[in-house]
Structure formats: C-alpha cells, structure tokens
C-alpha cells in the first residue's frame, strides 16, 4: 500500500543533482526508503518496492566507506526514523498500549506510520489519524477494535487539550444581554466532547499511575538485581457509558463527566444552535436550576467563547 | 568576534538548552545562566502549558530560538503557515537571531523528523540559499545555519561539506551556527580532518557554536547528546574559538538528561577554552 501523501519514488536515483527537480527526486527516493517498515531484526527491507535488492538501490545514491556499505549507511537513518517515531507514538498512547499489550501495540503503531507518515512539522500531531486508522484496519486490534477506537479518540483529545488553541473567554455579562433565541456560544477549541462506552477517564488515570509505579519499581529492581520484572497487563475497562469533556483549566489537563442533558446542550452549542435551542436540546433532564448551575460552572471554567463556524480538520 | 550581524550584534556567553526536566528547578531556583536556547517547534503551539512556561522563562532570561524543521535543504518551498507561526514566536521571544540546520527532512509535505544531509552540489546550494533568504525576509531576524552530523554521503556530491556550507552562507549572506561536535562526528564517519573543515570556513560568519556529547561504535559514531562533551570535541572547540573569536556557545544535552546543575557545570567548562582564545588574541 502506498503511504498516504507520498509521491512515487523515481525508478532510478538521479546521477547528478543539477536542479531542484533532481533534488526532489533524490529526496522522494530516500524518504520512501526510510518510511518502509523495518524487518523483525530492525533492518532495512532486503527488497525495494520494484523487487530489486535494496542494497543495489542504496548503492545508486549512497557512497560506501571502508567500514560500511551503502545499505548499512542508509539503514542507520532508517533505524533512527523508526525508533524516533515509534517512541513518539508510544508516549502519546499509554492507554492503547495497556489495552493491546506492547507487542500488538508496536505492530499497530508500525502499520499506522507506514500508512500515514507524518504530515506535520511537529511530532505532536503524529497520532491525529490513529483513530481513523484503527477503524480502517480492525484486524490489528480485534477483538477490541471498538474499545481501541474509543481510547485512540480519548488520547488524541488529551493532546488537543494540552496545547490546543484557546479563544478569549466570554463572561456572563458579555453574553447575558443578547436574547437566547439569537445568541450562539462557541466552545473553546481545546475542549473535546466525547461519549464513551467505557469509563476511560478512571481507567487511563490508573494506567498512567501504574506505569509510573512500574518505572520506579523497575529502576529499583534493576539497581538491586540487575534485571526487570514483567508486570501483568491491566484488565480492560468495564463497560459503562459516560459523557466527558476533555479540557484544560489553568493549563492543567482535566476530564469532566457530564450529565446526559448537559452533554446534549454543549453538543448543540458546539454545533451552532442558539442558546434557547441548545437548552431545548437538553430535553427533560435540563431542569432550569440545573441549567443555571451548569452554565455558571462552564463559564467559570472559561469554556465559552465567540461562536465560529467549524473548520474541517485537514487530513 | 562576539558580536556580529549574524547574531544580532549580541555578546551572549555560555548557554544551555531549555529542557522539560529542568523547568521546575529553573523556575523555583532561578539559577544564573547567560541564556537559554529553546527548540522553536516545542513552543509553536496554540496555547496551554508550553507557552505559559516560556513566558515565565522570558521574564527572567535571554532566549534564543533554535529550530529543527525549516529544512533549508528540502526541495519543497517554505510553508507560509509554518513561517507565520515561527514569526509569532520570534515576536514573543525577541530572539536576536534564529538558527536551524543545513539539512533536509521533508518532501511533498511528508516529514521524517530527521536532519538528513544535503547532496553537496551547486544546484542544492543555490536552492538552499534561496530558502534561507526567504525565511530571513519573512521572520525579520538574522539566521544562522547549523552543520549537521551525518552518517551517509551521496555519489552526487561535487564538493566537501565545508565548501558547501561556505557556498550556502555566502550566497544567503547568513551566519553559521558552528556545531563542533557535529564536525567531529562527521569527520569520524567520513574520514576527513576536522581541523581542515574548521580552517576553511568563513570565520567572520560564525554567530554561535554548539558543543555536545557523542557515542562511538565500532563502525560509526552517533551524535547522541546523552553525556558530557568528549576531549577531542573540546580541543576542536578551542581551535574554533581561536579562529572565530569568543562566540556565544551552547551545550546540547537531550537524552539521559542529568540534573540542571550537572548540565550547567558541563557547559561552563567552555570557559577554559574561551580564556585560552582571549589570551591568544590579547
């Protein structure tokens, strides 16, 4: 399968770099070589995309030296690429790792990066398409694909909440003067509303705490006995629907559980409903005294901003 | 030549890289440090904790921006959205100069997140210099380009790395961030004399220097930034300061990061060699 966004590499490496087109050709070739998954032994694949020996392809554009072949030298870069990117995915997905186990997770991460190489200048965006990839390739997470998608969505929401954009928060005085039938309230771009079929907030907190303890324990064990102990994978989360706002407050990450009616109101506001329509969307659970306390709480958290039409995510 | 057009006519001393494990120490203890180098991309975000930390650092310290994703040597045009983000950060930090690498790392919008060597040809030098000028004109601060460590050479190359670096910076009329450790690492991997490299550079264009630790394996040497600077690199640094003058210097330590005090202590070792250069001049 062709990696997303990559142009086809040239059939042969350019013999000379006499123009920007030659330079681009060389860079397409080398990029394609680097983004192909490593072998089980962390080596470059022995065959190129057209079936030729990889050593022959590498020798076309990389000089050997007295210690390393062209293939060996290209392999150094291939390893650095994969180790760096896999580490970044692992760091961003502690929950998914805990669910799948290290081996299955590494397989998923490698397949993901081979299909969706980075399209951003920052590794921060590396997992932006992971939920989509999990949905497109269910066999990699079977039989827990639905849960894996949920966790991927939840973990990406945390990245957004950590350093996503914010807009000036509106005060009650600023929006109190406008008629509810005309008022549209935006929600902060760093806030994500999620319906989850499992209480992932508690579960992921437990996983992170366990990882921290494991890190401390393995250091102690390594210091005392020169070895590490394999800990059991945590049990997957039990079922139970929750509605969650993943957000930040005073630059700390928070998960806030929401009543069904409160969640419906916020979703309606996010989608551009007027205030009166959003409150109506809350349904029978949206009792006036509750609605007042919810809005007071959300406003205090700085969730409201001027409404803007949503921008389609770039993929 | 401590102050020159390529470092904004500043006379900074010895700095260290601002890294997450040291945030709490720096903000609580406020240690005396000449300046911090930040990785621009870590703060080219839209909000949240990273910018809050940066603003607190800026209240106390001088900060210089160092980037890892401009990829001057890529065939792709500079990305305007990226440059706008970078310019916004430049306004925030008031960095007197901006540095990034003489390398490529992306093509057709796909990023490798690596610093890959450019083929050393005139066409590549022209393209690279053109992009440096475009970036400088957009962000409005002097630019220094850093030589990278490399593990491969191309058949297509027509000149040495130092000839290529000189060609690029002369064409772009920009500065050099001279990474002494990278010269050493590449000299081990490609079998050239690192002193010959240093001797042939346009020394008046050096606006900043880097030192760092590396790791030697049986068949190659890696630029690992995970332990103290090794003696051959300090010797090379001493030679560089004699040629270029006492220049703003930064220690890079990016992996297995020890305490702030240990990193700072390692960086301050540069003073020994700077004093030698001053005596040689004086």
What does this structure look like?
The complex is a heterodimer of chains A (315) and B (282). Chain A has helices at residues 20-35, 54-61, 70-92, 94-100, 102-115, 130-136, 145-163, 172-176, 200-225, 260-270, 275-281, 288-300, and strands spanning 185-187, 192-196, 242-249, 252-257, 304-306. Chain A is mainly alpha-helical. Chain A folds into three domains: 18-92, no CATH class; 100-163, no CATH class; 167-220 and 235-306, Outer Surface Protein A, domain 3 (Alpha-Beta Complex), CATH 3.90.930. In chain A, the strands form two sheets. Chain A has a three-stranded antiparallel beta sheet, with helices on both faces. In chain A, strands 1-5 form a two-stranded antiparallel ribbon. With 282 residues, chain B is of the alpha/beta class. Helices cover 42% and strands 18% of the residues of chain B. Chain B has helices at 23-29, 40-43, 49-60, 80-93, 122-139, 161-172, 180-190, 194-199, 231-244, 260-268, 270-281, and strands at residues 14-17, 35-39, 63-66, 98-101, 104-107, 110-116, 143-146, 175-179, 206-212, 215-216, 221-222, 249-252. In chain B, a hairpin with a 2-residue loop joins strand 5 (104-107) and strand 6. The longest helix of chain B is centred in the middle third of the chain and has 18 residues, at 122-139. Chain B is globular. The model of chain B has no long low-confidence stretch (mean pLDDT 96). Chains A and B meet through helix 1, helix 3 and helix 7 of A and helix 3, strand 5, strand 6 and helix 5 of B.
